[in-house]
Structures are given as structure tokens and as C-alpha cells.
Amino acid sequence: MPLLKTLPEDEFRQRLARGELALEVGPYIYKLRSNLPGVSEGIATLYADFPMADPHEFVDYNVALVSSGILQRLRKEAEFLFDNANPFDPIPVGQAYAFLEWGMNWCVSLYSNEYLKLHAGAVSKGDTAIIMPGVPGAGKSTLCAALGVRGWRILSDEHAMFELNTTQVIPLCRPVSLKNESIDVLRNFSSSAIFGPISKETHKGVVAHMKADMHPNSHDRKSVTARAMVFPKYSPGESQRLTPRRRTDSFILAAYHSFNYSLLCEAGFEAMKTLLDNVDCYDLVYHDLEWAVNAMDQLADAQVPP
Amino acid sequence: MSFLLQQILVDPSRILTLDHHQMQLLLAQGRNTRLLASLMCELQRGGIYEKLPPAIGRHFFTAHLVHEKQKRDLNYDCEKIRLALHTIGEKLVLLKGAAYLQAELPVSRGRLITDIDIIVPHRRIEAVEDVLRNAGWEGGEISAYDDRYYRNWGHEIPPLTNLKRETTLDVHHNILPPTAGPNVNAEILFERLIEVKPGIFTLSLQDMVIHSATHLFHEGEFHHGLRDLWDLDRMLRDFPTRDTQFWDGLISRAQELDLLGSLFHGLNYAQQIFSTPLPSGIIEDAGNRSRLLRKPVMDFLYLRAFRPKQPECKLPFTELALNLLYIRSHFLRMPLYLLLPHLTRKAWMRHFEKEKDSPEIPLNPKA
Fold first, then answer.
1. Is the ipTM of this complex over 0.85?
2. Taking the model in full, what pTM does it have?
3. What are the chain A neighbours of B72 within 8 Å (beta carbons)?
């Protein structure tokens, strides 16, 4: 399928406004609609290299971020629509782009359960995927983005999805969400990082998304084998280290960071067990991104494919 | 404006004839009305689910997983509630979704629940609240006005939440507020309970149907309207096979509970929307002259309210119909001299006291 950037600008805007723009995101197809300039700019910037899909075929997630009606326009509000209905209250137009990305995450969080889903970043170097679960503020997105601008492939910033009872990560590459200080940290870290619109005063503070598909294989749909699970922790006060941790409490932590471990019940337990039996687990405490990227490089290089 | 969900629920095999666009609409309507897992069960029973392409089947599968999880969670929660009530000698009597699931009735196939509804005798409310609080079920933050409103004019106490389990429990002492028109003697509901598991009870088959219809036609909002009507259809098809006397006493029981009006609407719309087979003449028996006269107007309103809210499916004047039904529900709930001060106060609170709400978190869909 042709890439989004091959569409002439006029046609892109028209199709987005009419809801006839569909994109392939990993195994899923999203259909997008928006009448907001900020949203169309963001999509044009961050999804330029995504393959398009036929909007008249079956799509998995039909989403929109629109401002409609006189009242909404006067109030400068917009709303996220899923299946043409609004699951959330309207938000200020200035937050529209961030909200679209959250809405797109929400679709997967709620409606995709054929895989074991961890709330984790997933990155790969060569044939080796590394999973990075993390609580908010642990720095998983920052590290994910930093690895992305240093030649790693970003498999996902938000949902690490595994084929049940395997260590195979299903790629689901979408823009990386960065918050507050992380935005400038990444700007200073690499001049090649490309950002979409900035949303201010969201409930998470300032939010900007970074283009995630710099790697040439970013949209390859084949799964990648996970060989390590790294629990990042951004901590300015501590000395930096990459140290092994026990599988048992890694299991519990990973289950805690899973979107659907308990939903899948026994299948979830079995899937998590297979995963944890087959990956090495580490703590990564860092405050310097260069150091962290270097440590991840060494970890990936040390993995010898069986 | 096609109401595909209705057509496929009634005749699941037709799903195989849908094109991509129609399939999309069907899934949207199923999610919106919380009936996707129920539809999945119908497809499975007809051996049709396996014939769907995996890219489409997975959307049904995921809805069904949620249903399965709710069933498991409900087992655990019911056991805890049963034990708590047992300490003060009260039985656990479940209502609606939780009752269907625990009784493993066909109506529970794919049924999703949002909370656990139970009923206890009015005079035991305080004792019940105490033991439930000890068992981890706590009242949420609620304004003093709302709390007073529930306790003075409600048929239930403010919802209790189990913070660890993230489940909500609605404790009722009646099936309609004491201020509502019909004067329901809740005590007679307890005379015909069915024990579905040791120590766990539901209302009788007839009372379950009457309660479901009452709930539906006294509600002001219709997010679950079609789902509730589907419940009625499933029960009305199944219950006569469990109890050959089911139809005979239904009308007189509704009369005894002063809920014949709700039963009339329930039978009427189940038949209109899901072609529920009914004994001939029963709708006429349930409807008096004024109900039959008002039927065209009510049909206009309800046949709109039962549709999913997607633009592709909505009929013209849906907003008007929903607003009128919302107002109607308030008139049914209490007389004007109580209603007007209440609505004024609520409008005031909504307008001026809204800032207290926490900011919208995208992962929590609004109710």
C-alpha cells in the first residue's frame, strides 16, 4: 500500500475531513477523521511514512477528533469519537492532537485482547526485542524515543503485545508520547527528532508526540523475539546501573503492568509464564540518556540468538 | 438508518451476508448498546462465529472475554456479600444482570453488567450497610444533598464501591422509589424467591420479568435500553419452558405489584423489536384504554430511544424523544411538589458546583 506522504496535500486534507483516510498500524487498521488544522498537521507530520489502507474495506477502529456544532466551535472544544459516538467529555481544541493519540491507544487498550498486552515500551536492535514496562514517570517513553533516534526500531511505546505463549512481540508502532521536561530532553539529545503539535495544560501537563518510525523496517508486520525485559527508572539521585533482577517479582510487576493479564485469566497466566521463563530481567536506573542508550546497546549486543 | 443489530440478533445467520461497511456498523451498534458479547453467544450457538474472518471475529472475542471475566468476578463478589449478609441473618437476593448470571439462565449469555444490584428488606437497610462496609464496600464521595435525596426519596441507598475490587454494589429495598406512582409492596417479592446457589437467591421468574420491564420504563436514560429489552426477550422465550404456569399468573402478579403499565410496555416493545412470541391477547390484557390510546405516542418515543446513538442508525427527532422520556421518567419518579425543587437544586449544583469534578482522565470513559 502507498505511504501517507504520497497523497497530495489537498487530497489528504479532504480525505481526513471526510473520514476516508485509513492507516495500517501494526495488525490493525484505523480510519481517521478530523476537521481541525492542528490534528491534520500532526497526522501529516507523524504518520507520513505509514502505509495507507483502503477506507472502504473493514477497519478495526473508526476514530475521529472533531469540533462540530455551533456551541462546540464557540467554546473552542473538540471531542473524540469512536464508532461515531463520544466515549469521553469534550476537551479544549488545543489538546486535540494529544487526545487523538490517547483515543487511539484507548481503542487498543479496551478492544484488543487476542494478544497478551503489557503497558510497556518495546524496542528492537537487529533480531532482539527488549521490553520496558514502567510506571508513569519511570522514563520508559523518554528512553524509547532516545533509542529510536539512535537507530533502534520502536516496536511500540505504549502496548507491548505478545502472541500468546510465545516471546514474539507484535509490532504496533505509533508516535511516542513525551511529557513536560522529556520533550526538551529529547530535543537536546538529538536534532533529528521530529515532533508533532504541542498540547498544553492537559491532565498530564505539556504533551508532544515524536515520530517513531525512523527505522527502515518500522512497518514490517513480522513479530520480533523478545530476549530481555528491562524495568527503567529515571532517578537523578542514584548511581546509574543495569543489574539483573529476579524473574519471580518481575513476573508480578509485569502482570501488574499488563492491560489484560487478568482478563485473559489462565491463558494470561500461561502466556506471562512463557514470556518470563524466556527473557532475562534487569533494572535500569539512569539519569543520563547517553549512558542508558549505551547500556541498552551493550545488552542487545550481548544477546546471542539461539 | 439501518438498525442492523436488531436484524442480526433476531436472525444471526444473516451476519454472513453483510458487506464491510455493514459489518462495521453492526460492531459499532453492538459495542454502543453493550450487546456485542450477547451477539457473540448467539453466533456461537448457531455455529456461525467460526465462519467469520478472524479480523472480524476478534472483535466479538474481546467483548466475550469481558463477559467471562465479569462472570468470574461476580462469583467471588457474591460469595463475599453472601457471607457478610449471613452474619446478620439476611439472604443475598440478586436483581437484574447479577441474578441472571448467578442463576445461569439463558438470558445471561454474553450479558455484561456494570454493577451488582441486590435487594434487602427496608427495615434491615442500616444493618446491611454496616456489615457491607465491614466487608469492604464503602459509600463514595457524595454531596449531603444527594445522600439525603437517596435516603428520603430513593428505593436504594447511595452506591457502595469496593475499592480493591473496583466493583459497585447497589443496595435496594424496593424496585421503585416510594414517591413513584405505583405503590409497590416490596415485601411480597421476598415470598417467592428462588435459591439458585446455596444462600444466593433471585426473584421469581415472573417477578424478574416484571422488575426488568419496570426498570426499563422508569429509567430516564437509555444507554442500556436495548440491552434491557433484549433481556426481556430472552426471558420471555425461556421462562415459559421452565414453568408452564408462567404466562397464566403474569398479569395478575403485575397487578398485585401495581406494575402492569410497565409490563405492558415491556411485552409490547419486546414483540415489536425482537418479535418475541407472546400468547395472543396478552398485550391487550395488560393494556387498559388509556395505555392503548397513548400507544402511538409512546411507540414514537421508545422506538427511537431503543436505537443505538450512532448517526447511521438514529431516526429523526431522536433527541426530542430522549428529552421527553427523560422528563417523563422524572414525573414517574415523584410528584411535582417534590420534583420541581429537586430539579432546580440539581441544575444549580450542575452549574455552579461542577469545578469540584476531577479533570477528565482519558482512560475512564464517562458513564
1. yes
2. 0.89
3. 265
